[in-house]
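Good morning,

Attaching, inline, the backbone tokens for the sequence recovery test we're adding to the shared suite. The designed sequence is right after.
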């Protein structure tokens, strides 16, 4: 379970809308943004100032990881990894959003469903995953029960919601 910090995210969301409106960046709906590139570091630090954001992974490291796994990461995951190589929550003492190295390691897990890319976990028995084929957004896969549940439209929605307290499992 994620600690409840929902009200903070709503205040942050209002501030983001005001800033985006002033800068000419507008939401297209469905979690997509027009014009400027998304600033992962600034957005995560805004919703969760206590998290640790290591430097992003290089394009070469991401390409090597894809080659190792024999697949291509969804663009949204590449964008995230280029900005920060995982996210550590000091309050929970946990890396919810995995580093590139851990993404590779965990995706060799024998229990991983072949159609999902594991990108993080809930510090319990669930994985955060991206569909490798259907584009179903972010799936929470409960390992003990083998149950899947869509929890966010994209990686952006997952991590801003998770660290902002509006998504829990």
């Amino acid at each position: 379970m994620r600690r409840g910090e929902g009200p903070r995210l709503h205040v942050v969301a209002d501030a983001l809308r005001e800033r985006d409106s002033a800068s000419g960046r507008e939401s297209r709906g469905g979690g997509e943004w027009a014009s400027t590139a998304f600033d992962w570091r600034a957005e995560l630090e805004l919703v969760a100032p206590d998290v640790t954001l290591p430097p992003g992974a290089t394009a070469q490291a991401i390409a090597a990881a894809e080659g190792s796994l024999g697949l291509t990461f969804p663009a949204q995951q590449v964008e995230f990894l280029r900005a920060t190589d995982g996210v550590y929550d000091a309050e929970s003492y946990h890396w919810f959003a995995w580093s590139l190295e851990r993404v590779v390691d965990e995706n060799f897990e024998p229990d991983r469903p072949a159609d999902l890319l594991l990108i993080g976990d809930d510090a319990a028995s669930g994985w955060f995953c991206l569909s490798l084929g259907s584009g179903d957004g972010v799936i929470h896969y409960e390992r003990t029960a083998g149950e899947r549940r869509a929890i966010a439209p994209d990686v952006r929605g997952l991590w801003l919601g998770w660290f902002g307290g509006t998504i829990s499992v």
